[in-house]
Each structure stands twice: as C-alpha cells, then as structure tokens.
Known about the structure:
The chain is of the alpha/beta class and 220 residues long. It has helices at 15-26, 40-47, 70-78, 93-101, 114-125, 144-152, 157-167, 172-179, 183-197, 202-210; strands spanning 7-11, 33-37, 56-59, 84-88, 106-109.
Amino acid sequence: MKLENLNIIIADDHPLFRNALRLALSNAFEKTQWFEADSAEALQGVLDQKETPFDLILLDLQMPGSHGYSTLIHLRTHYPDIPVVVISAHEDINTISRAIHYGSSGFIPKSASMEVLAEALNAVLYGDIWLPKGTQIVPISDDPTDKMANRLSDLTPQQYRVLQMFAEGLLNKQIAYDFGVSEATIKAHATAIFRKLGVRNRTQAVIALQQLEMDRIDIS
Length: 220
C-alpha cells in the first residue's frame, strides 16, 4: 500500500535543515503537504489549524521553547493520534531511551542518510516504532524528572503555553495581551499551573520545566 496525500510537520529551528529534509523526502512521499515550524510556539500555531488532519510530526528536541522533552510530552498528551518522530543531533542511548519513554514513535539521528530517514518514516506511518539499528533501550526509572514529566502532562494546552511564556520571562500583562484576555485570567492559569506542578511560584515553575532539558538529565 502506498502512502499518499499526507500532511507532515517538520519542527526544527534550522531553515536549511527543514528545506533539505523536505526536498529530500519529496520523492519518497509524493502528494505530501509539508508544514514547517521553527519553535514550540510556531508548532502549536500549525497544530491549531483544526481543518488539517496531520499524519506525522518530525520534532527537534532543542528548538526554541521546547525545553528538551517538554514539547514531546505535551504532544503525546494532547495530540495522541499524531505520531511523533524525534530527529536529533544527540544520538546517545540516554536521549533515545527517554524520547521513546515519553511517547516518541521513533528516533532518527540527524546524521542518518535520507534513505534511512525515508525507511524510518514509512515504518512509523505504518504503525511501527523505529530505532537506529543495534539500539538497546535503557529503562527509565521513576526519578524526579519522570515525576515532573507526569505533572507536566496534566497541563492543558493553554496552561502549557503560559508556562512557556513564564520561561521566556514575560510579565502577566504581556501574556494577557498576547492571549487577548485579562490579567486575572492569566493569574488563574498561573495558580492552576503551580498546583499541578507542585510548586509555589513562577520561578519554581520555570525550574521545574527546565528539569526536562536534556543537558540536565542523566539516567546512566
């Protein structure tokens, strides 16, 4: 069976890589509509196009606003029907294992050839999990990072976006302006975020989010 008429999102902050990826895959995936995002916020904007049924997301873990695994966790919680494949320059077993643990349908190193990339995406689109050959997944223990990941998954999409804006250092009135709501509404979101993450204030919430950044995690 040939896969056609697909809608695939490439979420990566490097425009040259996005363009090369799209061009290289065009032959393997004919009649595919490609969507691009260069940040977690831009990705959410693409996903908000409710009229488009997306078939796959190719996700870079380190684009702006992603905070490591947080965007992956958010996607798997709120868009469970869209498979996500992580494409990363970090190819260590710890990164791969945690990406799979948090729901990625595959992990493709950025060093992979385009033939391997096409093979991997085909496998995922047919419902398989794809990993580089010889990969031995490391079990993830119930550590503080994993506990925070579970708490993060409880946030609504709007609460998650507010948390991302907290991490950017935006004030409540700035966030309210961007959302087109009152400051009181943002304060209500903040209260819910603090409760769900088990923290007391914005600073602690941002620190909690930063726990999911790859350079702060060691599962070896």
